[in-house]
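Batch job 17 of 40 flagged for manual review because the log was empty.
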Amino acid sequence: MPTKLSSRPLPVVFLWHMHQPEYRDPRDGVYQQPWTYLHAIKDYADMAAHLERWPGARLVVNFVPILLEQLEDYAAQIDSYQRSRQVADLRDPLLVSLAEPGALVGDQRLVVIEALLRANRARMIDRFEPFARLVETADALLQTQDPGGYVSDAFIGDLSTWYHLAWCGETLRQSDPVVAELLDREGGFDAESRQALLGVIGETIGGLFDRFRALADRGQIELSMTPYAHPITPLLQDLRAGLEAEPDAPQPLAESYPGGDQRSRWHIEHGRAVFQRLLGRDPAGCWPAEGAISDATCRLLDQAGFAWAASGQQVLRNSLNHAHQTLHCDHQVYARPGQELRLFFRDDGLSDRIGFDYQNWHADDAVEDLVHHLVSIADTCDHLGVEAPLVPIILDGENAWEHYPDNGFWLLDGLYKQLSAHPRIEMTTFSSFLEAKPPAVELDALVAGSWVYGNLATWVGETAKNRAWDRLVDARQAYLDAESEGEWDEDMQMRNGLQLAVCEGSDWFWWFGEDNPAEATRDFDRLFRLQLARLYELIDVPVPAVLDEPISVPTHDANQVTGGGTMRRGQA
């Protein structure tokens, strides 16, 4: 006898995670990498525009507080420059190259030329013939003895203008008259044109806060957060937590991270304060950095008052296997005994299809494929009699789209159009889903892990990653010793705690190891050691000589690494 289909559509929650680490030099505030503002004008702006276009679409947008602070800073510095025309107000060399390329001198010119070539060749450079020609010329110049000395200010200005036009989101290219007018030109961009584009960049970044607040106010999105500087909380709490999923993995020399539980609480509390200040609400949910959870982390999130947290599907399966607990359906809500915190686990297969596979499909086919899979899951849940099914699709909201035609415009447009009107599918948020108080499956065990392969190996367990942890533990111990011996006032306590938080971020460890592109590994290695050195300076302790030595020796170029190293699949 055929199973009767449920009258309720299958709830589906998309969570787009927006994250960039702290890129500012801790001494002078100059940005060492431009990715925060470039993703803002490309991906965060596009994401808001797609939702504004399809008001029936509902989902979760997750922001890291340290990213929000940098967005605020970029908007402020561009606004200051627009009013003063003082190039010193711009603290990102790429913004200087756009506004006043003549202000770049010496080695700055070479550094900027190299930076202005960092874009997806097929999707972002070759798409614009004038930009592609400039890039070819720049590539040739880089083979000369003094590339920076050979190029004119006009060349840098044109190259920078096209670079920023290529990094504009598709919706910005379609709607902004300044961007549209510049796209129609070959080059020869004068100062007025370039500064007009800079104005669009500043307005776009500054407007993001109001746009996402408005989307949340009308119930179209739920805004959630990650602890302040994106730390891998399970490892702060227990540096050996990675052994739960990888019992034979090599470990750092240090056995623990001193005061890690207290630091984890600090990241939650300070992150919440930043989130409330900039987005005007107290988040109900938390995407822990990299979806990394452990039993201790879930207790902490529960005590902090979060209603929900999410992680990866392989963490769920590792936990079920460890407890010899059998389930016939992963697509449910979960809880640990005695906790109010509700846990959701991403559908790795569907999330990875968006992150990696659909970029080479026709958008219509990709949308139909995802809808087909969701309807199939709905049928399966009906057949199994799952009382409260839900499908979480969770992934990076930034890095996938540069690998798509038109920054993923047609995929996202088609998805939101189809899913918001589909009779068998309900786009929703985690908090809305929980309003009905659905029964939770109690997990008998929880194995520490993340959304990447269900373990913590992306951040600990390799030689370079372990070495980085030892450097951080040494700095943390020096911090504690200096704190106990000194008389820090409230301002010093906050200043030093913020610098420590930057050092505790996850990104440094992500980029160490043998499976990342050499250029990115070198950049993050240098910046991590710079942040640690600044911490020692702030606490008035001599900087160890070992921080002059690279932590990781890179071996790959970007073309050898899937997604340029910025993304991973959920399952190996």
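Reviewer: the log was empty due to a logging misconfiguration, but the result itself is present. The chain has a mean pLDDT of 95. Unflagging and moving on to job 18.
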